[in-house]
Amino acid sequence: MARIRAVVAAxxxxxxxxxxxxxxxxxxxxETARTPGQLLGRHAVGCEGTHGVFPKCNLACTPCYxxxxxxxxxxxxxxxxxxxxxxxxxxxxxxxPRAHAQLIGGEVTLLDPDDHAAALAIMRDHGRxxxxxxxxxxxxxxxxxVSFAAHFDSLMFGRRGIPRxxxxxxxxxxxxRFAAMFTRLRSEHKVRYFLAHNMTxxxxxxxxxxxxxxxxxxxxxxxxxxxxxxxxxxQRRWHEDYQQVTGDQVWAQIERGAGTRLDYRVLEHGDxxxxxxxxxxxxxxxxxxxxxxxxxxxxxxRDAFFRYFGPVxxxxxxxxxxAVKIAGAAGQLCDAPVHGRRRRHARMGxxxxxxxxxxxxxxxxxxxxxxxxxxxxxxxxxxxxxxLRAAQRARPGRKPxxxxxxxxxxxxxxxGRAGRRGHRLTARGDGAAPWPQGExxxxxxxxxxxxxxxxxxxxxxxx
Length: 463
Prior knowledge:
three-stranded parallel β-sheet, globular, 27% helix, single chain
C-alpha cells in the first residue's frame, strides 16, 4: 500500500508540499513584488546556493566579493560535505521539496572529484537541482545531466596559460572552447548539460556587453548573466576608478546585443531592481521573446500557465513522470470556469450532472432515455440554485407536429418559429418534420433523418 501511495504521489500533477511552499513564499513577498508576472510563489521558490562551504580560490579577480581570509577556511572533503548536508537540510525544511541550487565557491572545481560528485549527490538527495559539473576520473560517467556556470570577463587575474586580455573579445575563443567541451561530453558520454555564462560588469567593460551577447549567441550557452559590480569584499583588489553601474545601463547594452527590446516585466524573479530576466530564442542573428507583455494573448497564456501549471514541478522530474503530470494538469483546462460555470458539467450534460432530469428521447418510447443538450453562456436571470439549464426537455404530453416546411436559408422562417434568434432548422431527405419538442434556443441546431422516427441528431450542441 505504501508503494501504491508513493506511485500516486509521484504522478500527481502538483505535490501538496511544494504547493504549500509556494503559498508560503508568496505570502513572504512584499506587496510591491506581488506582480502579475511574478514567478516566485507561483512556479518557483527562488534560486538557492551554498554559503561559505568552499571559498578556496586560485584566482585574484577585480572586483571580488571574497574577504582576504577566504583561502584560510577549512575546505577538506569531509568538512565540505558536512556543511553542504547541513545547508541543504535547512533549505529543504524552510523552502520546500524542490528548487534550483548552486554549489558556490571560491573555485569549486578545486574540490577533489569524488568530493565534488558527492556534494552534487547530496544536493539532489534534498530535492535540489545543482548547478555545477563533475565527470569523474577516467571519463567514467557519474551523472546523466549536469549544469555548469562559467565566469568569463577581462577583470579576472590568475589564469594559467593566458595573459590578462585587453578586452572581452579576446576571451571569445576560450568561451567557445569551453562550450565545445560539453558538446563533446554529450557526444562521447551521453551526458546532457545546461551552460550558463556569467560576467561581472564595471565601467571598464560596460560598453562591451552588447558585443559579448552578439558574438557568443551561437556558442551553446543557455543563459547569459551580467552582474554589475559592487564595493564589497577585499578592497585591495580594486585597481580602477569606480562609478556605479546601474541595472538600466546594463540592460540597455543587453538589448543592443540582442537587437530588440527585452521585456523583463512579463516574467519576474523577485524584485526587478535586483533581478531582470527575459526568455526567448535565437533564429539566425535575431532574438525572439517567448512572451510579449504588450500582447494580450501572450499575457493570457502566461496567466493560464500560472493557473494550471504553476504548482507543477518541472525541475528534476523524469520525463515519463513529467508527461503524466502535464497531462493531469492539462485535464483541468476542461473544467475551467466559463461564465461562472464549469465546462466539465456542460460537457457531461444531464446524463451525469443531472441524472434526475433525464427524460425519454421520444415520448412514444419511454425506455430510450435521452441526453439533454445544455445551454452555455451568461447565466442571465436565474435563481442561485438553478445550476445548468436544459436547452431541450421532452414533454410527454405534446404530440409531434405533422406540417412544417423545410427551412429555406434565404426565405422566411417556418411557421411558429418566427423571431427565434440563432435558430437553424434543417430538414433532410424527404422533408420530414423536425423533432417538435425543441424550443428555438440560441446555439441549437435541430435535424431529422430520412426514413426514421425523429430523434436528436448530430446538430445538437451545447455551445
